[in-house]
Amino acid sequence: MKTFDDIEVRRPGIARSYLALLGAQPGRPLALFAPRRVGKTFFLDHDLAPEAKAARLLPVYADLWLHKSAPLEAVNHALEEALDDLLVPDSYVGKVARTPVKKMGLLGASVDLGDEPHRRTLPQAAALRLDALVTRLARQHKGQVLLMLDEVQTLGDAPDGVSMVATLRAVLHKRREEVCAVFTGSSQEGLARLMNTAGAPMYQFAQIIDFPILGDEFLRLLAEHFGKVHRGKKLELGELRDGFRQIGFKPALMRDVVKAMSAEGITDVRRGVENYMASDHQVSIWLALLNSVDAFDRGVLVAVAGGQPPLSQATLKRLTAIPGAKPTISKVRSSIEKLKRGGLLSKNALGLTIDDPLFAEFLQKRG
Q1: What is the domain range of residue 165?
Q2: Do residues 17 and 29 lie in contact, with contact meaning Cβ atoms separated by under 8 Å?
Q3: Residue 95 pLDDT > 60
Q4: Are residues 87 and 141 in the same domain?
Q5: What top-level branch of life does the organism fall under (predicted)?
Q6: CA spacing 20 to 30 A to 325: which of 61, 164, 318, 341?
């Protein structure tokens, strides 16, 4: 039986347009920007990868958050796994067929053929290893590799980030006949620092594209399924739009809200979002986030959530109410950087913001 979790929207047309852009500009990657949890990774896995395979490309996905301190190792790990998949078939017959024969019988005699010749081992240095892996994978595949790097701004935050970014650019440019790339990023500030800083290795190298959020096609599917589950009850599309906007256009979260509404049998989307925010499960998650930082950082979070300039004199005065706090502009700046590293704050063209809009509302109510 179909459930709310089975509702998915596929966008192969957008995937094909991205592949056409890559084909028109060899060596220049695409960088897709959108906030967290709006469907970028789902799109890479369920839309871009299948269309790439249909176009005879070999898609290779790497999540750079797997190894934040050395993200280039995460890229190499993904390439090595893809190479293993090509060299070592899953089936038993395939494995036997690839096993080198050392002895064979010939009219009662045995002939030792020895080990088959093989390539030299891959370089240990991550930069050289990336170049070698891309080349070998493309040759083994007999076609171009599509490298899909999720959360690419992680490269810029690594201890040796400038060197890693320079390596990635050099390989993508040098091996442009063998590899193309699509990046995703959820930090507008991080992407801008990586791609638009004059003199930086990636300066104006990638084409930055705003990744499109899901629209009415997704909301209609939710409403249709709700109507099938609850005969005679209906979700208004306009209310769903407002609710989707309120939660930051996050499809998985919207499904959770509508599932909770279905369990309660209510059709008021505004009430559904409010109930979700007030649920013990969600409140416990937000309280855990708050408890992961100290009282001063919590005060800065509340100020940002309330739309207050965190470095203003008025904000500094409010922060003095925190026991033991001696707020200064320098201390607030340090707090902001710590909260950004923890994923609680981000910076965009409009200034500092809380990544999760519902968490921001929760903070405003507590403030």
Answers
A1: 4-98+117-210
A2: no
A3: no
A4: yes
A5: Bacteria
A6: 341
